[in-house]
């Protein structure tokens, strides 16, 4: 396009406006009615949707943390140990597992989680750590490390 005067050049919006509008219309393609076809309405709805999406990413992370905590707490109650005692015992035993890993173990590998709970409880008792929470709250069975581990496995490890 050739502009013979500066006035015509400044009035021409050119291809940039087309691509800017196209980006908004592509984000609004699944809307219904004028919010899909009218640019001034579509741009408002797209901006609001993008703001909600930004908030939702943070809320999704918080929801997952709450779910993991709930699963771990439920598994801890089955084994008569509090979540705080489990975490403290695992930290003292240098077993560094995060919430997600503990939650997966609690839901998909309950025997492994039972062993971890027994190790944590044994380490806490060995160190003389006092939880300070009500001991009557957990309703599960009492754990002992010898009950969880197989005697044959313990004997094999003593040979080395």
From TrEMBL:
PANTHER family: 39S RIBOSOMAL PROTEIN L20 (PTHR10986). It comes from Diatraea saccharalis (sugarcane borer). This is Large ribosomal subunit protein bL20m. Pfam families: Ribosomal_L20. NCBIfam families: rplT_bact. GO terms for cellular component: ribonucleoprotein complex; ribosome. Keywords: Ribonucleoprotein, Ribosomal protein. GO terms for molecular function: rRNA binding; structural constituent of ribosome. GO terms for biological process: translation. InterPro entries: Ribosomal_bL20 (IPR005813), Ribosomal_protein_bL20_C (IPR035566). The keyword Transmembrane helix does not apply. It comes from the Eukaryota. The keyword Flavoprotein does not apply. Belongs to the bacterial ribosomal protein bL20 family. Gene3D superfamilies: 6.10.160.10, Ribosomal protein L20.
């Amino acid at each position: 396009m050739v502009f013979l005067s500066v006035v015509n050049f400044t009035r021409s919006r050119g291809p940039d406006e087309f691509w800017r509008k196209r980006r908004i219309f592509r984000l609004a393609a699944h809307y219904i009615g004028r919010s899909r076809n009218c640019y001034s309405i579509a741009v408002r709805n797209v901006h609001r949707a993008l703001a909600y999406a930004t908030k939702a990413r943070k809320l999704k992370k918080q929801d997952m943390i709450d779910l993991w905590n709930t699963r771990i707490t439920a598994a801890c109650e089955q084994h008569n140990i509090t979540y705080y005692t489990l975490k403290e015992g695992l930290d003292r035993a240098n077993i560094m597992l995060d919430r997600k890993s503990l939650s997966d173990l609690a839901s998909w590998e309950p025997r492994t989680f039972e062993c971890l709970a027994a190790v944590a409880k044994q380490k806490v008792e060995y160190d003389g750590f006092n939880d300070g929470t009500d001991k009557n709250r957990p309703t599960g069975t009492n754990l002992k490390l010898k009950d969880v581990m197989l005697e044959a496995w313990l004997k094999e490890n003593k040979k080395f």
